[in-house]
Amino acid sequence: MEIKLNRVSRFFAGLIFMLTLSVVTYAQEWSFDGKKPLAAAQGMGTLELRSVKGKLELSPGVLGMAVRTDGYSTSLKANLSKPFTGISGWFALESFPTDTAAFFAFKDTITGLSTSVCVDRFGEIILGKGNAQKFSYASTGHFVAKFTWLQIILLRNQNENGLWVNGIEILNKKQMPDFPKGSSELLLGTDYRKKTLGKMDLSAINGLIDEFKFLRGDDDLKKLIKEANALGKKNPKLAIPKSRFIDDFSRPKYHLLPAANWTNETHGLIYYKGKYHIFNQKNASNLALSQINWGHFSSTDLIDWTEHKPVLSPEKGYDENGIWSGHVVIGDAGIPMISYTAGGKKMGVALAFPRDSSLSEWIKYDKNPVIPGQPEGFSRTDLRDTYIFKEADRWYMVVGYGIEKAGQDRGALLLYSSSDLKSWKFLHTLFEGNPAVDNSGIFWEMPVFRKIGDKYLLLVNKVPHKGIPARALYWVGEFTHERFVPDDLLPKNLEVINRLLSPSVARDKDGLLTAIAIIPDEVSGDAGYQKGWSHLYSIPRIWNLSSGRLHQLPHPALTALRNGAGNRFDEQISSDQPKKVYAGQQYELLAEITADKANKFGFILHSNPDGSEFSKIYYDAESKQMVVDQTRSSKKKGIPQTTKKDNLNLDLSKPVKLHLFVDGSVVELFINDEHALTTRIFPLSKQSDVAEVFSQGGNIKIKGTVWKLNPAKMETDF
């Protein structure tokens, strides 16, 4: 320890401290209460807000109200009116940062030298110093927790010197740096060292700031520590303020998604002790695929969800670079188990077990990683994404992978076996693709291998490659001699139009095979930065296997969202004369269309009365293709203006059943209770909310019902 203390002391050598008055008083103080929450007490300066949303967010604080930050754009700045010898402030973190972030920093504007008190991505308090040319950090060895109040006191006066966190001195006067001489500027919630990803500030914290004070002279440290003991036991309210997205008409209201910021794949959908649980790739700190935790949601009905604190977070060592995707299974003893991809120096597999039946807290297995890397004889180090199943009395684990064979990169799945779900033995590859023949890609992620009836379904995501996007593919076949043998070597697409990926699959309480998957935004980084959330999850779907094909249809639980009996219609639509059927952001439309001689028929969605924005989803009977035309979907910057199409052979001698769900930006369409497609629409105008039915080349008959859908209850418990 002595070595570390001396290093910290040397780290800050040369900074000059300015001693000031010995009167007990606060130089500047912000409590964030009252009509002018950013104004200091006694009129001693006002904080300048910096935020992409341009508005101050307030949440319940340790006393009164606190400033709520977003983790990537929010910070506060002030000029310091008088010299100081100490700082005290209250903070609460929802997440650790993607990079090192500052609770506060202050700078001598003449010399440019700054000092900051920071937290790193593992929760360690560290101290920073620097100027425009050079910036560096030093460790304190003290770690803090998320979802708790942190009182931070930094003192350097005639009687008291040190750094305190929640009343505990973590640096004494021999270790303490000097403040920059003539400090005249303050940053709250970010650092002077600017590290960005796109427009995102990676030096910003995600959480709450309250009761921030600058001190002058000999302050009563005992009083501050007493305050820490009294207030530090309170639970911070870190739910995202409703004001953040109140004007965002594109944000869905009945689809599952986190409260804010980044999410990626779901995994581990299970029904356990009367509740559904699903887990997700979560970065609460910003809008990027980094600092990945396992988020957690629960529900009693697959419609209303509560978001809980993340159950797994990266720690130094075997998973320090991310808690990546995996699976949840209920073991032989009836206890769930998480298997996840551990992102360390190389990728491995680790396990975790719940502390109790609520599944809100999990303990990492003490013998992790149970699979430390790729098997012997395989060169790639990036194995990832587990799926576990049981056949007879053996447990098996499938892991996504890629191999080179006959001079060609191809997707593959590694297969392991276990008798106890803890010790795993590599067997061989379960199945390998042949992209020259089956177009299955060079690497497979997010596998699902599940028995449905007397057949096995194997689903994978092929990764993006050479401009071809990721896509979910599946085969149907047999599990024979611990290998998968497909009935047809050519895979089928999970969706007609490629958008939905990485389904999580489980039996619901009634035994229905249910899937929930990710539907990406596909917008630019700047567009995501402006809206403050990335990606969401599909409505729950029912899967059935028939004649070697996967059939998808909406889960019956969704009928609970319907507002009333709906509006019925039964009429003929003339060619090139669209018929309005609804105006709004959240609705369901169930219809049967008789095509007659029409060569195109379908929907015009999110249409603006002036015709400046609209999207078209339709069937082209001549080319036998489904088409999603979004070339005029939005006047916003950063929204793709594309047309996607793919083959679909519909029997038009019969009515075509179309089941449409629209929820702000997300559209899900089911065709004949078998095929499905999804897309996202982000118009600029809130008035772009009209839905029409149209035909070309002939008239159509349509009979159906449209319902307004109520919002689901999406809550957080932190």
Which key phrases capture this entry?
718 residues, mainly beta, Jelly Rolls, 8-stranded antiparallel beta sheet
Q: How is this structure best described in words?
A:
The protein has 718 residues and is mostly beta strands. Among the domains are: 2-242, Sandwich (Jelly Rolls); 559-715, Jelly Rolls, CATH 2.60.120.560. Helices cover 4% and strands 48% of the residues. It is built from four helices and 53 strands. The strands form ten sheets. Strands 1, 3, 4, 6, 11, 12, 13 and 17 form an eight-stranded antiparallel sheet that branches. The longest helix is centred in the first third of the chain and has 11 residues, at 221-231. It is globular, with a radius of gyration of 28 Å. The two termini are 36 Å apart. The model is unreliable at 1-24 (pLDDT under 50).
